[in-house]
Write a structure and sequence with these properties.
The complex is a heterodimer of chains A (424) and B (141).
Chain A: H1 5-11, H2 17-33, E1 38-40, E2 43-45, H3 62-70, E3 87-89, H4 107-122, E4 146-148, H5 151-161, H6 170-179, E5 181-183, E6 197-201, H7 208-219, E7 228-231, H8 239-253, H9 270-273, E8 282-285, H10 287-297, E9 305-306, E10 309-312, H11 319-329, E11 339-344, H12 346-354, H13 357-363, E12 367-370, H14 374-377, E13 386-388, H15 391-395, E14 406-408, H16 411-420, E15 422-423
Parallel strand pairs in A: 2-3, 2-4, 6-7, 6-8, 10-11, 10-13, 11-12, 13-14
Antiparallel strand pairs in A: 1-5, 9-15
Helix pairs in contact in A: 2-6, 5-8, 7-8, 7-10, 11-13
Chain B: E1 3-7, E2 9-12, E3 15-22, E4 56-58, H1 68-77, E5 84-87, H2 92-101, E6 105-107, H3 113-116, E7 122-126, E8 131-135
Parallel strand pairs in B: 3-4, 4-5, 5-6
Antiparallel strand pairs in B: 1-8, 2-6, 3-7, 7-8
Helix pairs in contact in B: 1-2
Classes of the chains: A alpha/beta (424), B alpha/beta (141).
């Protein structure tokens, strides 16, 4: 693998011990995948804070944890600065840190989480607190190399913006952000961005829920490592709908990049999406496929029952979605036995407050939360009847939950059930 | 009973030996593995209930969110990680997982390992030479 003089200096430790360790992992990664060179990473969306998985490190020392869990080294190194020229976001949080009274972490862990976030902030990381960096100012443009710990964000920014990034993982993102490099492989290379399979959509998706089911159905249909090119007759989805679609598609199928001729920038037409290649396989998604997917993921489909907990906001909601929710909740009251959590991010919440949406949600008895989600924060203790509107969130529900009491449906169905106190 | 030899590219050096933990359907990383016990907890997966510890993990590609490598890494730190890896083709997540775990890896395998290796077979992989030796538990019909 070719390294530039500057990259060799980083590997030799001339830019600090943390950068050296980070570069060592990037070189090993590059060698494993057969990369020939590195590229400069200018945007990094990370996974900062006292997330649960870090507990395996058995330490309360930030540098020890960061070295072991992010830099993948047993050597003692301290994080000083993130790489120069790389704009870093902290990413999704382990809890709703902006609303401490709704946090599930105990006070000791809250303090440690704050300490961790402060250390990252000192190193130059912007505390973003969301899984939708692309809607809050994280804007790698066409041809720019980024890393992101958020699979849906990778698919979104590759596909819709033409920026270049892999869904390679949390350690890889941290290391790239610390040394400023990642191997040129996968979606960092133009030739790998060509379509590999045509997917004819014949399921007529319209709503967010339809697109969510389509993404989930494709999880069982796409070949591994596919770059799908979507054709067929469907109503043009906007960025908010694609946010939902990309979350379910990335999670169900591991997709990092897709094309929609006439919508995504690297696909002015189908031929260009395939970079002139022919002989690709064609698969078709029918209404029966998405219906089967719905029946598979919605394990509570044939049931009904009382609800304790309803979660909406995977991925985090755009302010327009909060406006729509407000339209439903105005003048209504969430059932007293139900906890309704609605997840968004600080800037969206600010707009929701300014526009009066937050007040309506709170008056109805809902919680407008930011930063995390149940996948990271966990579920309230003792809940058994749970409803949600996103397949990605459904796939992360704890294994010990009774599947027949986890209900998945459209946002409207979730809101109606929150008021009724019952899924039916 | 006879040994089977499979060749690929050795991508992380070293020799690892263990029972094959193999599935044609790759597993979900995030939420699919108990990071303290190494047990696969993905509901309905063919490997549900099996443990990563000391196994030769054989999967093609990844599923689930970007936190794929992290779950294997956390299991390794808990002392219940796999001994070696066979990833017939790589994607960015499996490549990073191998780099993070830094255990012997053989990849770029042309033949279909899923037809030649069964769950529980004793596998020795040489990540320097790129070879895999399989001792069959049962003769393949």
């Amino acid at each position: 693998m070719h390294l530039t003089d500057e990259e060799k200096k980083i590997l030799d430790g001339k830019k600090g011990a943390a950068a050296r360790e980070a570069m060592a992992l990037m070189v090993r990664y590059g060698e494993v995948i057969g990369a020939k060179e590195m590229c400069r990473v200018t945007w990094a969306d990370l996974f900062c804070g006292a997330h649960n998985y870090l507990d395996v490190a058995g330490s309360k020392d930030f540098d020890e944890i960061f070295a072991r869990m992010a830099l993948c080294t047993d050597r003692k190194v301290a994080l000083d600065r993130m790489a120069q020229g790389c704009i870093c976001y902290s990413g999704v949080e382990p809890d709703c840190t902006e609303v401490p009274e709704k946090m599930y972490m105990d006070e000791g862990k809250q303090a440690f989480n704050r300490e961790m976030l402060n250390r990252f902030a000192d190193a130059g990381v912007i505390l973003s607190g969301n899984c939708i960096p692309y809607l809050t100012g994280f804007v790698p443009v066409m041809g720019e190399h980024f890393v992101s710990c958020e699979s849906s964000a990778v698919l979104f920014m590759n596909s819709l913006w033409g920026a270049m990034g892999n869904g390679d993982g949390i350690e890889a993102s941290f290391c790239a952000a610390v040394c400023g490099r990642t191997p040129v492989s996968g979606m960092h290379s133009k030739k790998n961005r060509a379509g590999t399979v045509e997917v004819r959509i014949n399921s007529s998706p319209v709503t967010n829920h339809d697109w969510d089911m389509l993404g989930y159905a494709l999880g069982g249909m796409l070949p591994p490592h596919a770059v799908p090119v979507f054709t067929g007759k469907f109503m043009r989805p906007n960025a908010i709908t694609l946010k939902t679609f990309f979350a379910s598609l990335a999670c169900a199928a591991g997709t990092e990049m897709c094309h929609m001729p006439g919508i995504t920038p690297e696909a002015p037409d189908k031929e260009t999406a395939f970079q002139g290649k022919t002989g690709y396989p064609v698969i078709e998604v029918t209404p029966a496929d998405t219906r089967a997917a719905f029946e598979q993921v919605n394990t509570g489909i044939r049931g009904s029952g009382n609800l304790d907990y309803v979660t909406i906001g995977c991925p985090h909601l755009h302010v327009e979605e909060l406006r729509e929710i407000t339209g439903f909740l105005e003048g209504k009251r969430i059932h007293p036995d139900v906890c309704l959590d609605i997840w968004t991010t600080g800037p969206m919440k600010y707009m929701a407050e300014r526009n009066g949406y937050a007040a309506v949600i709170e008056a109805a008895g809902g919680n407008l939360l930011t930063g995390g989600c149940p996948s990271n924060r966990g579920y309230p203790e003792g809940v058994s009847g749970v409803a949600m509107d996103a397949t990605k969130q459904r796939q992360d529900t704890p294994a010990h939950f009774d599947g027949s009491r986890i209900f998945l449906g459209s946002r409207q169905a979730c809101l109606e059930a929150s008021v009724r106190g019952r899924w039916q | 009973m006879s040994d089977i030899l499979i060749r690929g590219r050795g991508a992380i050096a070293g020799i690892a030996k263990g029972e094959a933990l193999i599935s044609e359907k790759t597993i979900i990383g995030w939420g699919g593995i108990d990071i303290y016990t190494g047990i696969i907890v993905e509901q309905g997966h063919p490997l549900e209930g099996h443990c990563l510890k000391d196994k030769i993990l054989i999967l093609d590609g990844s599923r689930g969110s970007n936190g794929w490598s992290l779950f294997f890494h956390a299991a390794q730190i808990s002392g219940v990680g796999p001994a070696g890896l066979i990833f017939p083709t790589l994607d960015s997540r499996t490549a990073v997982t191998a780099a993070v775990l830094n255990v012997p890896l053989v990849t770029d395998i042309r033949e279909n390992v899923f037809q030649r290796i069964s769950l529980g077979d004793m596998v020795t992989l040489d990540g320097t030479r790129g070879t895999i030796t399989v001792k069959k538990e049962k003769d393949t019909p």
